[in-house]
Design brief:
Order of helices and strands: EEEEEEEEEEE
Distance between the termini: 40 Å
Number of helices: 0
Strand content: over 45%
Helix content: under 10%
Number of strands: 11
Largest sheet: 7 strands, mixed
Shape: globular
Radius of gyration: 13 Å
């Protein structure tokens, strides 16, 4: 019904920047929340940032506040994650997720209905 495809990951050095993209296709709706999660090897999946599609409200986990920015391009059904001042601890597979039928900027992965395949971000020290 809805497909999410992430792109933009890569290998960078500490302090560099990357912009991740997540393109949604299929039967998409404007009333939704989209978010970014990440998971490092051997660690639990963690919430990074979320955005409301209707009003643009955003929410970030403390570890990325001031460094990462989530944004949306509604006509293109695309959400972005601008990552600045990257650190080795940001190394992870980054996943795009979408939540339909609710407007809360949830940090819980199980509350999201659709997921992309992930894109690898590696930050060298």
């Amino acid at each position: 019904q809805v497909q999410l495809v992430e792109s933009g990951g890569g290998l960078v050095e500490t302090g560099d920047s990357l912009r991740l993209s997540c393109a949604a296709s299929g039967r998409t709706f404007s009333s939704r929340v989209m978010a970014w999660f990440r998971q490092a090897p051997g660690k639990e999946r963690e919430f990074v940032a979320a955005i409301s599609w209707t009003d643009g409200r955003t929410y970030y986990t403390d570890s990325v506040k001031g460094r990462f920015t989530i944004s949306r391009d509604s006509p293109k059904n695309t959400v972005y994650l601008q990552m600045n001042t990257l650190k080795p601890e940001d190394t992870a597979v980054y996943y795009c997720a979408a939540r339909y039928g609710a407007g809360r900027l949830s940090t819980a992965g199980y509350e999201y209905n659709y997921w992309g395949q992930g894109t690898q971000v590696t930050v060298s020290s």
